[in-house]
Amino acid sequence: MALEYYIKSYTHIKNNTVSLNGEVIYKDEELDFKSFIKAAYKATETKYPKFFKMDSLSKLAFLAGDILLNNESLNIEEENNIALVFSNKASSLDTDRKHQESIQHQENYYPSPAVFVYTLPNICIGEISIKHKLYSENSFFIFDGFNAEHLATYATSLLVDEKATDVLCGWVEYDGDDYEAFLYLVSQQGEIEHNTKEIIKLYNN
User: Fold this and answer.
1) Which domains does the chain have, with CATH numbers?
2) How far apart are CA 55 and CA 34, in angstroms?
3) Strand pairing partners for 24?
């Protein structure tokens, strides 16, 4: 008998609003992104001092992931076999631009290691993994748009092959003023069926 998988929980961060399982947990429409994400960090009682050194994409992904995983009451003293499968369209383009600006003029050459380290989109996965002690599979895919079918297929394959007991999936996009995070946790427990139709429905919620 084939195992069935479910979406156990999900979170959105967009339009200056943070929600968990469809319920708004923080909102402030008056702030720009940098101020909003810091205020959301404090409002959700996230505790990770390195957060303030991250680039914007990593802050967005980390906060969304942290909210979901904290909701699971994980024991961070033990290894948690949760895979991470993220995706977006712009990769790390916002940080890439900042790095390019720092190296394009020979007479004003000031590359920053603190910026360069974030010129890979999967660094945000590493930040989440470090805090929550996740040492399982992880991938970051670049698509033209949100690809629910790929995420569903890839997550299911990880679970069927027993490479993880749960999979944290989703879309984390940051490019200038355009930002959005939608993450969800796939498990053998839950009420929402794990399939493309349900993922798209939650994403558009």
Assistant:
1) 6-203 (3.40.47.10)
2) 10
3) 19
How many Å separate Cα 141 from the centre of its chain?
12
The single residue listed with the structure tokens 């390019």 is: 100
Residues 12-44 have pLDDT tens digits of 999 999 999 999 999 999 999 999 999 999 999
**What DSSP designation does 134 have?**
B
Render the burial of 142-174: b for 16+ CB within 10 Å, e for the rest: eeeebbbeebbebbbebbeeeebebbbbbbbbb
d(CA 165, CA 186): 9
Task: Record the pTM.
Answer: 0.90
Q: Angle CA(65)–CA(80)–CA(160) in degrees, nearest 5? A: 95
The label of the residue with tokens 């679970």 reads 159
Residue 108 per-residue DSSP state: G
> What is the CA 47 to chain-centroid distance, rounded?
16
